[in-house]
Amino acid sequence: MRRESEPILEVENLEIAFPSAEGALHAVNGVSLDLRPGETLGIVGESGCGKSTIGRAILGLVPSPGKIVGGSIRFQGNDITRFSGEQLRAYRGNRVAMIFQDPMSTLNPVMTIGTQIREALSIHNVAKGAAATARATKLLDLVGIPDARSRLDAYPHQLSGGMRQRAGIAMAISCEPDVLIADEPTTALDVTVQAQVIDLLGSLRDEFGMAIVLISHDLGVVSSIADRVMVLYSGYVVESGTTGKVLGRRLHPYTEGLIGSRTEINGPRPDRLHAIPGAAPALMGPAAECPFRPRCPVAENVCTLSNPPLVAVENMHEAACHVRAPQPVQPVEIRKRRGAQ
Amino acid sequence: MSTSASEAITPHKRSANGGPLLEVVDLKVHFGTGAGLQGRKGGKVKAVDGLSFHIDQGETLGLVGESGCGKSTTGRAVLQLIEPTAGSVRFAGKELIGLKRRELRRVRRHMQMVFQDPYSSLDSRMTVADTLAEPLSIHGLARGREASTRIADLLDSVGLPQSSTRRYPHEFSGGQRQRIAIARALAVSPQLIVCDEPISALDVSVQAQVLNLFEDLQKDFGLTYLFIAHDLAAVRHLSQRIAVMYLGRIVETGDSEEVVARPLHPYSQALISAVPRLESSSSKRERIILQGDLPSPANPPSGCHFSTRCPYAQARCRVEEPTLTTVENGRQVSCHFWQEIQSGAMLPSQNVVGSTDSEPSGVAL
C-alpha cells in the first residue's frame, strides 16, 4: 500500500451513457476511484458492467457513440475530459497506456513488432533511429521475449499468444507510462501463460513504480496482484476496498456470487457451484431500485425502494447493499466519497 | 425433466463385455505439413502421439493441457471428425476407425460435441427451432409436431425459455448460446458428449451456470463426458478422472481429487500452481512458473517432451523418453524421476521456480 503519496489519477462521479433507440443506456453510473503511483487497482464484473468503458475513458477513448455525461477524470490534477486533441495525443500512450485482451487485434499485422515499438517511441519523442532500436530490444528483453534482437523483425502472427501479449505490454510500457490500464490481459491465454503475464505486470510495476488498473471478470486473476478491488455491477460500484478486506468479508451478495461461481483448485470441491442466476440487466436510466435485486439471494422489500448508496463499512472498505451494509446517516454525503479511502 | 428424453437415452447397447463406453488405444493423429517451398520435403506434426484412455458409462474424464497440446485434436479424432493416423477408438465395444460413412453416421448419433465458441458453432441464419430440429430430422428421430414437443423438452432441459424457438443466435448472450449448443447436442439423445473448452469463452458467473447445467444433465440423462479444457479448476470440478496432456501425450492420469491434491508429474504440478486462486496479494505463495511456451509439435524436444521446461530435468530426460507407468491404483505417470521429486530427494532448479513477488528480469531501461 502506498497511500502516503498524492494520487496520480482521480476519477470522480464518472457517468458514461450510450444513446440507443430505446433511450440512453447508462454504462457507468457515478464511479469514483483514485490511484497512487505503484498501486494496483482491480476492477471486476461481468461482461457489460462498464469495466472496459471506464478503462477506455481514462485514456480518453470512450467508444462512439458513448459520451461522458458527468464527472471528471483528473490526471495529475488536470481534467482529461477537457483536453484538446493535441493534449490527448501527448497524454495517451505516453503518460497512460493500455493493454488489451486480444493482442492480435491491437497489433498491426503488417508491421513488424520492432517497427511498431519504434513508432511509439518516436511519436512521443522518447527515442529515434538506432537509439529507438536499442530501446525496443531492451523492452522485448524486459518483458521476457527470448532472442529479443531478432524478434524485432517478427510480425505479430509469427509469435504465440503469450509472446504477442508480451509484445503488447512492451509497446504499452515503451514510454514508461505512469498508469497502465490492462483490460482482460490474460483472458485469451492459457493458465500457465496467464501466470507469467500477471507476474510480469507485477514486477514491471515494482520496478518502474507504475500504477496499474487491472480489469477482469475473474476475481482470482485480480486478487494475486491488486492492492485494492472494485466490484462493478450495471455500471455501479457495489463493493470496493483492499483486496484482503473484500475477499475476506465478501460483503455484497454480488461479490459473494462472483466468488461462489469460481471453481477452485484447492480446498474441498463443492457439490454444486453457487452460480448467480440470470444475467445483468442493461440500465436505461438511473436505477430506481438495487440493480442486483432480481438476481439477489438475500433481497428484501427495502431493496425495491431505492438504489443503495456506497457506504463505508470499515476503514478502506465500502459496499452498496441495503441488507448487508445499511446506511447510517445522510447517504447523499457518503455517496460522494471516493472509492475506498 | 421430460420423460421422452430419458427414455430415448436408453443405451442402444453397452459393450458386450461390459467394458468402458469409450476405449482409446494408442491413438495417433499426424498431420503432414505439406511440401515446403522450393520442393523441400514437408515435416510431420504429431498432434496426438500414442494416446490411450477409457471412459466408463456415466463418467467424466477431464483432458487438460495448454493450447497446442493436442487435446482438441484428440476430441475430434474420437468422434472421427479427423481421421486418426493409427490406433483404435472403440465406442460401446465397436471399433470406429475404418467404419463406412453410413455406419459412422449411425454411431455418431450417440456421440455429440459441444464447441468452445458459441458465436461460431451456431448457424447465424437458423432459428433456435431450426437448429434443434436439424439433428432430429437428419437422424430420422422426430418430425412435425413430435419434433416441436422434443424441442420444447430440450429448451426446458437447458433452461431456456420456450419463446426462444423463433429467435436467432445473435439475440442471445454467450451463455445462452452455449445452452443452445448443448441442447443441439442433446437433441439426438447421445450417450457421450465431447465438450471442447465449452466454458472458456464465458464470464466466470456464466461458467458456473453452464458447469451446473452439465452436472444436472449428466444426472438426468446418464451422460458420459470427455471434458477438454485448459482450466484445471473447472476440470477438477466436473471430472471423476483427469488426464494431463503435454505435446500429444498423456503425462499423468488418475482420480481427479488425487491428481489435484498430489500431482506426481512436474508438468501437472506447474499447471496446478498456475491456476489463479482467491488470495490477497499480500499472502505470497511459492509458485512454479513455467518459462516459455509449449515447444512446437512439429519439432518436439528429444527424450521427455517436457524436459525443456521442466525444473527437475536431468541429462537422462533429454535422451530417454519416459513411458506412462501405472504407479498406484488407477494412477499413471510418465516421468523418470517422479519418486525422487515426490520424496523431496530431487529439488527444482532455482531459475524456474518463482514466488508471486519474483524479482524482475533485471534488465533496466
The main sheet of chain A orders its strands as: 6-7-8-3-9-10-12-11
Measured distance between first and last alpha carbons of chain A: 12 Å
Counting DSSP E segments of at least 2 residues, the number of strands of chain A comes to 12
Bulk shape of chain A: globular
Distance between the ends of chain B: 63 Å
CATH architecture of the largest domain in chain A: 3-Layer(aba) Sandwich
CATH class of the largest domain in chain B: Alpha Beta
What's the shape of chain B? globular
Order of helices and strands of chain A: EEEHEEHEHHHHHEHEHEEHHEEH
The total beta strand count of chain B reads: 14
What is the beta-strand fraction of chain A? Answer: 15-25%
Structural class of chain A: alpha/beta
Structural Rg of chain A:
21 Å
* Helical content band of chain A: 25-40%
Largest sheet of chain A: 8 strands, mixed
Overall number of domains of chain A: 2
Describe this structure in words.
The complex is a heterodimer of chains A (341) and B (365). Chain A is α/β, with parallel strands linked by helices and 341 residues long. Chain A has two domains: 217 residues, P-loop containing nucleotide triphosphate hydrolases (Rossmann fold), CATH 3.40.50; 73 residues, no CATH class. In chain A, helix 4 packs across helix 5, helix 5 packs across helix 7 and helix 7 packs parallel to helix 8. In chain B, the strands form three sheets. Chain B has an eight-stranded mixed beta sheet with strand order 6-7-8-3-9-10-13-12, with helices on both faces. Chain B has a four-stranded antiparallel beta sheet with strand order 2-1-4-5. In chain B, strands 11-14 form a two-stranded antiparallel ribbon. Chain B starts with a helix and ends in a 10-residue tail after the last strand. Chain B has twelve helices and 14 strands. The longest helix of chain B has 18 residues. In chain B, a hairpin with a 2-residue loop joins strand 4 and strand 5. The N terminus and C terminus of chain B are likely disordered. Chain B has two domains: 226 residues, 3-Layer(aba) Sandwich (Rossmann fold), CATH 3.40.50; 84 residues, no CATH class. Chains A and B meet through helix 5, helix 7, helix 8, helix 9 and helix 10 of A and helix 7, helix 8 and helix 10 of B.
